[in-house]
Amino acid sequence: MSGSQTPHESASESASGAAADASQDFIVLINDEEQYSLWSASIAIPAGWRTTYGPAAKQACLDYVDEVWKDLTPRSVRLRLQEAADRARNGG
């Protein structure tokens, strides 16, 4: 992701972080490139990202991402590939 801030999991990820995560609420964010990120619900959402799921338990958020994010290719790349395929199909 060039030039964009990438959200990350809560700083509570540590040796004891796994137990804390089970009770913490998380949200799933999406950006304009249709890329997803797990984010602590207690931390402000960074610019360029919006909530698409949650707040919910961490595992529920991970399950949601597994269900909906089938193509990891950024949206802009998918659009360019589609445009190139359309041009080739139309002889152009």
TrEMBL record:
<dbReference type="Pfam" id="PF03621">
    <property type="entry name" value="MbtH"/>
</dbReference>
<dbReference type="GO" id="GO:0005829">
    <property type="term" value="C:cytosol"/>
</dbReference>
<dbReference type="InterPro" id="IPR038020">
    <property type="entry name" value="MbtH-like_sf"/>
</dbReference>
<protein>
    <submittedName>
        <fullName>MbtH-like protein</fullName>
    </submittedName>
</protein>
<feature type="domain" description="MbtH-like">
    <location>
        <begin position="17"/>
        <end position="67"/>
    </location>
</feature>
<dbReference type="InterPro" id="IPR005153">
    <property type="entry name" value="MbtH-like_dom"/>
</dbReference>
<dbReference type="GO" id="GO:0019290">
    <property type="term" value="P:siderophore biosynthetic process"/>
</dbReference>
<dbReference type="InterPro" id="IPR037407">
    <property type="entry name" value="MLP_fam"/>
</dbReference>
